[in-house]
Every structure is written in structure tokens, then in C-alpha cells.
Amino acid sequence: MSSTPNIPDTHAAEAGVLPRWVTVLFVVAFALVGYLLYGNYSERQALHKTQDDAAQKSQAMLSELDKTNSRIADLKGQLDVMSQKLGLTEDELARARSLAQTARSEQQKSDVQFRQAIGAVQADTTTKFGQMSTQLSGTQTDLNATKADLEATKGAMQSIKGDLGVQSGLVARNHDEVEELKRLGQRDIFEFTLSKSSKGPEHVGPIQVQLRKTDTKKFKYTLNVVADDKTIEKKDKTAGEPVQFYVRGARAPYEIVVFDVTKDQAKGYLSAPKSATAGPPPGN
What we know:
This protein is α+β, with helices and mostly antiparallel strands. 53% of the residues lie in helices and 23% in strands. The protein has a domain at 159-276: Sandwich (Tick-borne Encephalitis virus Glycoprotein, domain 1). The protein is built from four helices and ten strands; from the N terminus they run αααββαββββββββ. The longest helix is centred in the N-terminal third of the chain and has 67 residues, at 20-86. The radius of gyration is 64 Å and the shape is elongated.
């Protein structure tokens, strides 16, 4: 019987050694587990810290609330002590509060009424100011219209030479224009109505005038002027013509203008220089 040599079992040796990739897989798995455990630990630590912070804040708020409640209690106690010292009951305190509220309401109403009154006064003042402005505007318009009428009347009136050859002032042709001459104030104006039936000279301003004759067809007249103790006859003068004569002390001539001649009357005016009418009129 022959013997078989002792040869090692190669397959058994290979079966006893682990493959390399299995070792690598175990290492990776172990590292992953460690990483997960570390992450879980960190999250738990952060959560605990957040919980601790929240707990501290809650505790601080509770502490502040306790302090506030304590202050309220102290204030209430002080109010109760003051109420007892003043002898006030709850009903009296309530009545005092009601009176205070009523006073505030009345004050608010008074303030509203006062503001309304101020507004009414301001509105009334504004209205009156507007009315005054309108009236002033109307007055200015009237003044402008009067001025325009005066200028128009002045333009309508003429300045012509009188019977002495002296250039006259503006000559009025009717009563309205005589009034305009008076408003101009350049000379003293005395309007008159002379009658032939008068027994003697009639006073016209500082002189005397007597109507002697009228001619309605030719619109002429004759009159005597009495001035400086002498009589001046103005014969056959035409209506609208300035009849001129000098009076002692006057540098410019007096002027008589007759603008209406009838059978028995003559209407017109005397125009005298301003500086020559201060003295009293002469006697008959």
C-alpha cells in the first residue's frame, strides 16, 4: 500500500482569507455610522442649547411679569390707602370718574363750539372784506366814470375869445356844463337868471347885472354891468359869447356867458378869477 504525499489544501487556505473589497466596505460603513452619530450628537446639542435659551427667556419674562404684578399691587394698595385717607368709597370714586369724564366731554364740546365760532368770525370777516373790496371797486369805477364824463364834457366845451379879444376859459352851453365848470374849480362860477322886469341891477356874485333887452330871433341881448361904482353897457351880445370886463384888483377879466335867451329872461353864468372874489359885493 503506497502512501500519498502530504500536500497543503490550497482551496482551504484561500477560503480562510477575506477579500479586500469586503474590508474596504466595512471601513466605509464604519465611517458613515460614525459621521451619522456625530451629526446626531451635534443636532441634539444645538437643540438642548435652544431649549436652554428659551427657558432662560421665559424665566426672564416671568420675572418681569412678577415685578409688574408687584408694582400693580403696590399701586393698587397705595390707591386704596389714599382713598381711605380721603374717605372715598367705591361709589364716590366712580362718581368722581364720571364727573371727570363729563368735564372732559363738556370741554371737548366747548372746544368744538369755540373753533366753530372762530370759523364763523373768519368767514364773516372774509365776506365783509370781499364786500368792502367790491364796494371799493364800485366806487373806483364810479370815480373813473365821473372822471371820464368830466373829461368828455371838457372836450365838448370850447375855449373862445371874448368880446375884449382875450382868450376865455371853457365856455358852458347849459346848466349841466355850468355844474362841470364848478367841479373843475378853476374859477368861481355864479349861475343866474336875469329878468327884464327887474327894476334895478341884480346881484351876481361880487357884481351887479341888469338885463335891458332880448332878441329871441337873433338870440341876442343887451345888459348893464355894475362894478367898481361904474356901469358898463354890453350891447347886442350873442348867446354863447363870453362878455368880458375888468374889475379893480383882478389881473384876468370877468366873463359873463348867456346860453339861453327868451322874451323876458336871460340865463347864464358869471365866471370870475379865484383871487378877485374875496371882498363883499358892492352896493346899489
